[in-house]
TrEMBL record:
Residues 37-136, 146-245 form the NIPSNAP domain. Belongs to the NipSnap family. One of its GO terms (cellular component) is mitochondrion. The gene is NIPSNAP3A. This is Protein NipSnap homolog 3A. Transmembrane segments: none annotated. Pfam families: NIPSNAP.
Length: 247
């Protein structure tokens, strides 16, 4: 009888699913979507900016035939001069590997796009990012200028600073001071880094909205909460290229 009871107990245990374990050490919501965005920054040799952009405009179709270009900008203000910034979308890491294998075999892309442009580039940087779970990539209503604001947060991930940061971003949106394009969290590169891509009609409209937000107690309160988790921040004013999908 005891043996039978023991056997039944083991059988029930085998059919019972294991309880889901949620670690208190999780750094934020799990990333279920494999889609990621590669941020690429090229520092061009002085006096080569115009030549580089003209060649990219002429031959960008050779590159976009392989994967999706989200946006391509020249940096107007913020940081080093003669710099371009572009964002590429991939379904997952296997997709990116396939794209670059195909590019390695694409003689036309190498001869007309890669080789001529490499001679004009002084330095390259790459960063892999995900859209945060509470944000979708938005397309502005018309042409304008973009601001990429980069926030270096304290170690700990979104579990530590995610909610206050989200409230600060949404407060700016809800009051209409600017339009959000996307919020990206770094996966490869400098960790605990968040990029917020904003759109405005012009640099002057961006400045006016920023001045108004500084006088809004709702914005001030949300920002004061989020800066408790902030280590540093910087921004760039971006001018979209004529061939950029995001204008």
């Amino acid at each position: 009888m005891l043996a039978l009871r023991s056997s039944l107990t083991r059988a029930v245990a085998a059919r019972t699913p294991a309880p889901q374990v949620c670690s208190s050490f999780a750094t934020g919501p799990r990333q279920y979507d494999g889609t990621f965005y590669e941020f690429r920054t090229y520092y061009l040799k002085p006096s080569k900016m115009k030549e580089f952009l003209e060649n990219v405009k002429k031959n960008i179709h050779l590159r976009t035939a392989h994967s999706e270009l989200v946006g391509y900008w020249s940096v107007e203000f913020g940081g080093r001069m003669n710099k371009v910034f572009h964002i590429w979308k991939y379904d997952n890491f296997a997709h990116r590997t396939e794209v670059w294998k195909a590019l390695a075999k694409d003689k036309e892309w190498q001869e007309q796009f890669l080789i001529p442009n490499l001679a004009l580039i002084d330095k390259q940087e790459s960063e892999i990012t995900y859209l945060v779970p509470w944000c979708k990539l938005e397309k502005p209503p018309k042409e304008g200028v973009y601001e990429l604001a980069t926030f270096q947060m304290k170690p700990g991930g979104p579990a530590l600073w995610g909610d206050p940061f989200k409230r600060a971003v949404h407060t700016h949106i809800n009051q209409g001071y600017t339009k959000l394009v996307g919020v990206f969290h770094a996966e490869y590169g400098i960790l605990n880094r968040v990029h917020v891509l904003w759109w405005n009609e012009s640099a002057d409209s961006r400045a006016a909205g920023r001045h108004r937000s500084h006088e809004d107690p709702r914005v001030v309160a949300a920002v004061r909460e989020s800066v408790n988790f902030l280590e540093s921040q910087q921004n760039m004013l971006l001018i979209p290229a004529s061939f950029s999908p995001l204008k």
